[in-house]
Amino acid sequence: MKKIAFLLFTTLTISFASQAQIGVKLGANLTNLAGDLQDEDNYQNKLGLVGGITYNIPLSSDNFISIQPELLYSQKGFKRADISYNDPATGQQVTQEGKVNYSYLDLPILFKINAGPVFFEAGPQVSYLLSIKDNTELTVNGIDFESYVRQDKDALAEFEIGYAAGVGVQIPMGLTLNVRYNGSVSALAKDDNGDELANARNSVYQATIGFKLPMGNK
Predict the structure, then answer these.
(1) Domain holding 117: CATH number?
(2) pLDDT along the chain (218 residues), means of 10
(3) Number of folded domains in the chain?
(4) What is the pTM of this model?
């Protein structure tokens, strides 16, 4: 009986895997920090890139239910609120603005319901922090000065535990349009050392276009 069950499971697994689809996707993130922030006005939305590969595996013969792991490069972070002031030493008018980019490698594992051309998705996500870049722009009496500084990531948690949920539509020629929200349940900072980022979490709205290639015979 166990052998029969094992053979049946193996047969179904091979059958579903033969209908799997690999794809690529590219899009944009609208990101900011969420959580118990002391000065929320200093953190504003910023745009970032997202892109990577997908692998959709049917869990039913009609593909109504499927599972889709993805591996994505994702830019998160925030834009600093603009600050204007007069330099007391020089009397010059100074405007400061900038943004902080957190580059992540995201691994969401999504359970999908495919209701015709429309699909719904949700599942856990693990992210790895690759790098941090601080882009600051100063304008002094109308003259712009820019600086790009790659920051040490030791103070932030390298791994982030989160979730993703969204909806999309499949259109002809193997294309998909997808909107999704990514949230985090783990804190951005590694330790609660009084830093405001100890209470911060990444918050990401995501819009992508994808292209799927069939694998195997259908």
Answers:
(1) 2.40.160.20
(2) 45 52 96 84 91 94 92 94 70 76 96 95 97 79 64 84 97 92 90 70 96 67
(3) 1
(4) 0.81
